[in-house]
Design a protein that fits this description.
This protein has about 140 residues and is mainly α. The protein has a domain of about 90 residues. Helix content is about 65%, strand content about 0%. It has six helices and no strands. Helix 1 packs across helix 5 and helix 2 packs antiparallel against helix 5. The longest helix is centred in the middle third of the chain and has 21 residues. Keywords: Signal.
């Protein structure tokens, strides 16, 4: 259950990282960071960008209301040290109640995000995610 939740959290964050700008999550939005592979190749309309920004902002506010200051600092420190999102979330030592709340928030955000996209855009995102999950082959 814990691994499933962390995977879901990390997956949801992949969608929202490119739009993140709060102090607690600022480390994940540096211009030198690679583009989110989940959104690579996706052309968003201005209306989609606006809607996604609203979803992201709402989601971020809800998350920040759930996390303690210490958890926000742990997340920021973990990301600042180059840890991936999955490990950064794990470093926060979330309570069962927080996990349940976050799960609901991310499910809602993912549904809203998905509804904002066209079928073709959703398909591209799924393909991007599958390609990220495939084991990387060693170059010869």
């Amino acid at each position: 259950m814990k691994l499933k939740l962390i995977s879901m959290l990390a997956g949801a964050v992949v969608f929202f990282v490119p739009f993140t700008s709060s102090a607690a999550f600022a480390q994940t939005n540096s211009p030198s960071a690679p583009a989110s592979s989940g959104l690579m190749g996706i052309e968003l309309t201005p209306q989609q960008k606006t809607k996604i920004e609203q979803i992201r902002s709402n989601t971020r506010s809800q998350i920040e209301n759930i996390l303690t200051a210490e958890q926000k600092n742990k997340f920021k420190a973990a990301v600042g040290q180059g840890q991936d999102m999955r490990r950064a979330f794990a470093a926060m030592n979330l309570s069962d109640q927080q996990k349940t709340q976050l799960q609901g928030i991310f499910q809602s955000a993912a549904s809203q995000f998905s509804a904002t996209l066209t079928q073709e855009q959703r398909q591209t995102i799924m393909e991007n995610m599958r390609s990220r999950q495939q084991p990387q082959q060693n170059p010869k």
